[in-house]
Amino acid sequence: MDWDDLRIFLAVARSESLSGAGRWLKMDASTVGRRIGRLEHDIGATLFAKTPQGYTLTPEGDRLVAPAEAAEKAAKAANEATRRDAGISGVLRIGAPDGCANYLLPQVARALCDIHPGLEIQIVALPRVVNLSKREADMAIAVSPPDTGRLTVQRLTDYHLHLAAHRDYLDKHPAIRDLPDLRRHRLVGYIPDMIFDRELDYLSETGVQTAQITSNSVSVQMQAIRAAAGLGIVHDFAIPFVPGLRVVLPDQIALKRSFWLLRHADDRGSRRMNLLAEALVQQLRAETARLEAMVQAAADRRT
Fold first, then answer.
1. How confident is the model at residue 84, as a pLDDT?
2. What is the pTM of this model?
3. Residue 229 in contact with residue 213, Cβ under 8 Å?
4. Structural domains for the chain
5. Crossing angle, helix 3-15 and helix 29-43, to 10 degrees?
């Protein structure tokens, strides 16, 4: 049994499908299936059971996961040792909530790739927590630290949010001078039963219980606000991307949240992953501060 067989086995175990493993490995699903079949024949055991939900591990397959992950760790260490002086290169897949993925990570990725030309960055934008145990990403950014899991957790940066609307909406609707005035306005926010983290329940802090236009995506919410459909809680770092957006009741509705960097616990000894995490933290903090400073400067000019 060689490492390449174990690599394919782990990809199927984590994605629970041949097609998902194939996309990760850049291999045809039929080839993945043949390789798994050959591995099962070589060791004389069935590793996966095919169900309507996908490929699930059998007891024999489950016992193979730990030694396969140990082999994966050793292979990464060996690869790292052979290019210790070559700088940061290779693929880095970052999972993040879509607000961070849309408004912060593109600039961060540009800066990292400018510094490290051999680096390939993949950004996975999901309206949920990225599953690191299934290797959906190498690192994940979350809006709250997890309570469980074998993870390394690091506070990335604080960020701020305010109630905002497009000037076209504000020009056509009654003035907003205090919180009770919001009851006469249309709100944009999250679909209540699809809020995947309590830190995202922004509208509860406005005293308004119901939003008329909702989405599980921050980007969709922002597009609705941009279209003058209503008011919503927005990230300060996203405001510079929407000309005409105006903060409303800044002294009464001002939220602060934090981003957290999550990594596999097994990666703590990896020089490459430590360097990547350090660079990611530095660049994301700088970009958040830059965009928020732009919002504050614009507010100062209007006062």
1. 47
2. 0.71
3. yes
4. 3-82 (1.10.10.10), 90-156+258-284 (3.40.190.10), 158-255+294-302 (3.40.190.10)
5. 120
